[in-house]
């Protein structure tokens, strides 16, 4: 989750101004900002907190809760780069899911991996976070592949195990080095989750993973928001100094402090439910 936010902020200045290299400087640009990836991740985190507090078990009620929270957070944090279809959906109170297979279901799902006690629970909840909008099979797969990869990384999975898990959803025939030079803009789940996972697999540490995600080009903030939490989980957290440098981007001037609360509560629940940080 911190990895989602860091990836989102770092990538925010490159989404429409791609930079195809890893050694870009500074790592956190002064013009960077949080975008829809962070906002909707906080909505998922808040939903999971409410599910726990209220003891919710009914799938339909949980989907309805996520739908309400996606709308509420989108209206509370306007102008954060929401996709056109998503914004139309969010502005119509009872609009049905629109069969999206875009990468939005993957970018917002990371809290599920920290919340879940088992891989089965992770896959179930990932599906439920997708359903309000991304009820296309590829939209659901993007959420499950991302959440499952993070879950395995959190619970000691190796890179080979994480790769094999993601390949249940998406083939990964090429390496990062083979894909990076020619990778182009892609907003669908499969074309975003695949390279995001490859950036993680090729990385040496958290920052390296984010740098590799950005160097792909394309939908930079969202790719990095997907690579980030996998790397965070695998490398045992994000570097504290980097998190402290990222927090001001969610500070008073951008009014993003509720977004920090949305993920902090899930770290606490993770500790409570899974017995570790
Ligand atoms: Mg974004």
Largest sheet: none
Average pLDDT over all residues: 96
How many beta-strand segments? 0
Give the number of domains: 1
- Segments where pLDDT lies below 50 for 5+ residues? none
Which distinct ligands sit in these coordinates?
magnesium ion
Strand residue content: under 5%
**CATH structural fold name:** ADP-ribosylglycohydrolase fold
Classification by helices and strands: mainly alpha
Order of helices and strands: HHHHHHHHHHHHHHH
CATH homology superfamily name: ADP-ribosylation/Crystallin J1
Radius of gyration: 17 Å
Architecture (CATH level 2) name: Orthogonal Bundle
CATH first level: Mainly Alpha
Note down, in words, how this protein is organized:
The protein is an all-alpha fold. The protein has a single domain, classed as ADP-ribosylglycohydrolase fold (Orthogonal Bundle), CATH 1.10.4080. Helix content is 61%, strand content 0%. It contains 15 helices and no strands. It has helices at 2-11, 36-54, 59-76, 84-91, 104-107, 110-115, 119-130, 137-154, 159-166, 176-179, 189-201, 206-215, 220-234, 240-246, 257-274. The longest helix is centred in the N-terminal third of the chain and has 19 residues, at 36-54. The two termini are 13 Å apart. The mean pLDDT is 96. It binds magnesium ion. Residues 35-37, 81, 221-222 line the site of magnesium ion.
Features:
277 residues; 61% helix; binds magnesium ion; 0% strand; ADP-ribosylglycohydrolase fold; mainly alpha; single chain; 15 helices
